[in-house]
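CORE FACILITY INTAKE
Project code: CF-77B
Contact: R.S. (postdoc)
Sample description: multi-component assembly, two entities in total
Requested service: structural model of the whole complex
Turnaround: standard
Below are the sequence entries exactly as provided by the requester. Do not edit them.
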Amino acid sequence: MNILISGLITGSMLALLAIGFSLIFGVARIINIAHTAFYMLAAYSIYYLSVRSGVNPLLSMLVAVVAVTVLGLLVYLFLIDPIREHEGAVLIATIALAMVFQEVVLLTFTGDYRTVDFLITGFFTVGGVKVFYQQMLTFGVVLLTLVALWLLLMKTKLGLAIRSMAEDREVANLMGMNESRLAMITMGISVALAGFTGAVLAPLTVLNPYMWMEPLIIMMAVVVLGGMGSIKGSFVAAFILGFTEAAVVFLIPKGAFLRGSVALTIMILVLLIRPEGLFGVAFEEER
Amino acid sequence: MLLEIDHLVVRYEKAVLINDISLGVDKGELVSLVGPNGAGKSTTLRAITGLVAWEREIKRRSTQGDILLEGRVTFDGERIDDVPAHEIVKRGLVLCPERRRPFRELTVSENLWAGAYLEKDKRRSKERLEKVYDLFPVLKDRSRQISGTLSGGEQQMLAIGRALMSEPKLLCIDEPSTGLSPLLRQEVFDKIMQLKGMGITILLVEQEVSTVFKMTTRNYVLSSGKIIAQGSGEELMENEVIRKTYLGL
């Protein structure tokens, strides 16, 4: 039961992060290392607004997500877009960006651990396991978002363009899809998802300036397992890894510190055995 | 002339792919570009549809070398050589690319909808979809299938159908018969003739010269980036040098 709940929550979080990361990689071939740093910024914004300034928690979540999205778009315009076609440069720039965010948070909020209050308190017990209402709320909201995202991608014209662009930029261009505009919109969606994940996760986690690193690694493992650029793959792989981690922690309690290495092990195995991942497209050289 | 190419030059670094060619396509014509591998046929199509310029932009931005692109391309009375690729289709010029390249993870009908991306009126897109289904009934039967699982012949029909969804004035088709069985090749050529009968102007790149020459109004023979001959299929077949050296017949 514990594995189930924890696996579901971690899995759905990872799915949100990984899908956002996959989207912008798919559409514009941008590997955004700072993706989870945006997630951290959103969590800290909520802490600042709701705990320090006493703003209504729901309102602060909204403000945090919007602010992080705007910041993400500005970063895209001024930092990423000019070097978009240079993969190495994008990697370095986004790593640097994540570090900058980390240091800014460290300077502003110090390295102390911070927490954000639950939106709703209380819990119920299922099979002897305590389940907090907050956990259920977070899970529900994340699930709803995943469904909305799925609808956006599968049922709208924008979604069709995003998926076409992710598969074959050149042909998408021929169909009249504007690459830079789509990349910009996708970056907005991607960062908004990262910010949103940070916002809903904030009450369930401990905030510190290094909190972006662990999810980054796990998210990369998710993307590798699911297949680079495949949205369906990210979704499935996120739950696989979410459950695996929960199972490891539960089955070998003393081995809880092994959590992080599970993701890395899976990532290495996938790269060795099936580099294109579960649903990956084995990338064809253009032309 | 619907399409006019005037002194087109394309160079990738030091490799000259297109060396000063000029050609034209009139309304209602079916014109072919033939010639040996590496003659610059596909590059010509990529240049007029803006893909060479797009590639140049990427190369420049990633600092991986440069492409030189010179010359004038006029389509329907307007210059299009400085128009970005994604806006060229708006003007009615579309390319059905080499190796078909359907969006493999999308279903057949999603591929076709993608082809009508610029059409804002959903009803009109729907009408076009029905037209394409009439032309290629197999696509209708497989409309919900993931297009990566289609056979080569079906993928070619899909690629042509997708290009038709933009309701082009000029349809460029790059090597539609490659990799297909003789039977399917004939089917593809029959469909192309059917399109011509519907009044669609077509610029066709093909290796299957003997069949193509029977279909076309005019032909251009390319070799090493230059046009070395042009004329009707009969005229070109009479010229022994061209026939043996460049067409391998």
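Facility notes:
- The longest strand of chain A covers residues 123-126.
- Chain A touches chain B through 25 residues (CB under 8 Å).
Invoice: internal transfer
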